[in-house]
């Protein structure tokens, strides 16, 4: 398992966890982290064959994992996803919106379709997922919403990602305000802001030499691993974090620390 033995004592048996964009990269590590700790995990991903392959792999290790195909840019599909989950499983304890869309595009070349899909997948889907799950959370008397945000947008900038940065800044605004409004229903809303994480998606941002140069500038001396983000998600979903809401946890190896 890619997440190693960190948080090995956390137990999510009897919990249902939905992970969007869980077929690969950070999402895959999140799925594995919850699944090996007893949760029933539903992977919602547009890349169904990859998601199904992961579900089969983990099921062979006595984990409870299933995969469904969904285009999170379609609001109706998001509501249907939650409705179908409730009908099949009857509960949702942890909602993890990890799916992201970020085609590297110079600012002057961003088209309406690129911007619309970026905002739909990264930000709007978060609204609709949470809104669709809210009746279930209310009946259960609790709920946990987690989001993979980013340091890009809220804290730093990156060439070619203006559309992505804007969506993630919006995500952080959602986290704070939704946490305030939903606290009365015992629904916690938090996020994780990854820095540069070594995943297949890194190939979209540059070649190996560029990635090595980026790693050399990280105070901890390496690119992050997907398991680093999964560990933060586990903590925020666990009973260790029941008094934490409206927050984002930066996991970037110290990259955003000021230099003196």
UniProtKB/TrEMBL annotation:
GO molecular function, one term: oxidoreductase activity
Bilayer-crossing regions: none
Signal sequence range: none
InterPro entries recorded: KR_dom, NAD(P)-bd_dom_sf, Sc_DH/Rdtase_CS, SDR_fam
Superkingdom, natural source: Bacteria
Keyword Oxidoreductase (UniProt): yes
Family matches, as SMART domains: PKS_KR (SM00822)
Residues annotated as domain Ketoreductase: 15-195
Family annotation (PROSITE patterns): ADH_SHORT
Keyword terms of this UniProt record: Oxidoreductase
Protein family: Belongs to the short-chain dehydrogenases/reductases (SDR) family.
PANTHER family tied to this protein: OXIDOREDUCTASE, SHORT-CHAIN DEHYDROGENASE/REDUCTASE FAMILY (AFU_ORTHOLOGUE AFUA_5G02870), SHORT-CHAIN DEHYDROGENASE_REDUCTASE FAMILY PROTEIN
Protein name, UniProt field: 3-ketoacyl-ACP reductase
Species, as recorded: Pseudomonas frederiksbergensis
